[in-house]
Amino acid sequence: MTLLDTIIDEWAGITFPRPVVALGGFKPTPGCYWCGAETQAEAVCTCMRERLHWSRVIRLGAYEEPLSDCILGGKYAAWKDMLEHLGALLGAKIRGCVPPNSILVPVPMPPIRRYFRRINHAGVIAKQASLTSGIPIRRALWRKECMPQASKSASARTLLPRNSILLRPLAMIKGKNAILVDDVLTTGRTLEVAANKLKNAQVASVRVAVLAVTKMS
Known about the structure:
By secondary structure, the chain is of the alpha/beta class. It has one domain (about 1-215): Rossmann fold (3-Layer(aba) Sandwich), CATH 3.40.50. Helix content is about 35%, strand content about 15%. It is built from eight helices and six strands; from the N terminus they run ααβααβααβαββαβ. The protein has helices at about 1-10, 20-25, 65-75, 80-95, 110-115, 120-135, 155, 190-200, and strands at about 55-60, 100-105, 140-145, 165, 175-185, 205-215. The chain has a four-stranded parallel beta sheet with strand order 1-6-5-2. A two-stranded antiparallel sheet has the order 3-4. The longest helix has 15 residues, at about 80-95. The radius of gyration is 16 Å and the shape is globular.
C-alpha cells in the first residue's frame, strides 16, 4: 500500500498529455489465444489450455512501457481520458472475434476502493469497449472489500478467496458468451474467480479481454 500511496502522491496535480501522445508509437501486439503471453503472431504458445478458466485472451500488449505507465496513470490518478482511449482500442480488437450473444462483464471494484480512487477503471474500459465494439455491458458481478491484488506478491495473489467476488442478483446471463474485462492479467487469479462465478450462472462461454499481460503470466 505504501508504494501505491507514493504513486498517487507523485501524480497528484499533474496535467496529463493527450492519450495518443502518452502512448507514443504503441501499437497492439499479438499474444497467445489461451494464456495471453507474447507471441510472434496471434496463435497458441506452449501453454496448457486445460489449466485455464477461459477459452481465449484478447489483449492489447505486454505490460511494459509506455502501455504500463498509461494504465497506472488511468488506474491510480483517475486519468479517465486514457482509460477511455485504451478501452476503445480494446473494443476494436474485440469486435469481430467473439461469437454472437456476447456480453462484456467488467471485473468489479470494491465500493470503498472505488470511492478513494475516484474511478472504476475496469468499468470505464468496458464502457468504451462496448461503444466501440457494439457489444452490450452486463454488470453481473460484485466484489467484497479486500486488500488490492496490486499490493500483493505473485504468490499471495493466487490466494484470493473464492467468495471475494459474487454474482449479482438477477444477473440474467445464462446462455450468454461472457467477456471479462480488466486492466492487467498477472497471475490470473482474479479473473479465475470471476470466471468461475459466471460459469456457476451457466454462461455459454467465458473469454478475457485485458489491456496488458505481464511477463510472468
